Amino acid sequence: MLESHKDATVADRILNVNSISIGNWEWSRSPGGRALDELTKLNNLISSVSITDRPDSWKFSLDTSGTFTTSSLSKLINNLKYGIHSRNILLSRNKFVPQKVFIFSWRVIQLKIPVRSELDKKGIDLHTILCPLCDHHIETIDHVLVNCHHASSIWTQLLDWWNQNNTTISSINDVIISNQGFSHNSIGSSLWQATKWIACYILWKHRNLKVFSSKVWNPAMIISEIQTQTFSWISTRSRKKKSIDWHQWLLNPSFYVASPPNRMGIG
Ligand SMILES: [Zn+2]
User: Fold this and answer.
1) The domain containing residue 50 runs over which residues?
2) Over the stretch 174-222, which tens digit does the pLDDT of each residue have?
3) How many folded domains does the chain comprise?
4) How many whole angstroms from 185 Cα to the centroid of ligand 1?
5) Distance in Å, CA 170 to ligand 1 centroid
6) CA 154, CA 198: separation in Å to the nearest integer?
7) What are 14's strand-pairing partners?
8) Global pTM?
9) Does residue 109 lie within any of the structural domains?
């Protein structure tokens, strides 16, 4: 408030004399009282600061690089919001699934799906925190989407459909992140991952239908919906639109990842 020239720069006001920074003030009137206290503190602060003759610039002090990026800011907010142990997992996109499935998968892995145990942690009053499918275990994300026997029977059938009987699915990490089974084959691993993500999305949809619309959990219908939906989403996103045959997909989708060579130019 006491500055005479409101557009003065830092370089105008801090002079470097023999490697010591001193104030080169031009006040509109002499500071007194509390302002004098503040000036003393300011002089102490700048005495150890060395300034260069580069132009003034902004520095993002919350990141060690000094550069502002949205990812550094979002990491910071996540750490503050969810603690240092937040799940700092990078999920790469999968070109065979729609955006909404990718976002859902990301939310699953960040534990941001409103299962009853998570709502309870947020202090939301629920009449029960038990799994709406089995009504026996606490509803966590791992439980309702993977370990509940109603969900695990679906996964067993999907593994069978994909000839993946040596693969185990025992947590959401196995569903969303792991690419066991196809690590040698990138198209195979993308198709299998897309299938798992879409299955997870459909399982959650049917969980919600049961909770909010009192629909019956029907495993045969869910399997059939997963097979139809994976075919529809994956085939429209393949390089050659008609490269996947419905009957072949239904019979044995791993036919399309046989390697080498990759069949029919999927990808
Ligand atoms: Zn359950």
Assistant:
1) 1-57
2) 999 877 767 666 788 889 999 999 999 999 999 999 999 999 999 999 9
3) 3
4) 34
5) 14
6) 13
7) 23
8) 0.66
9) yes
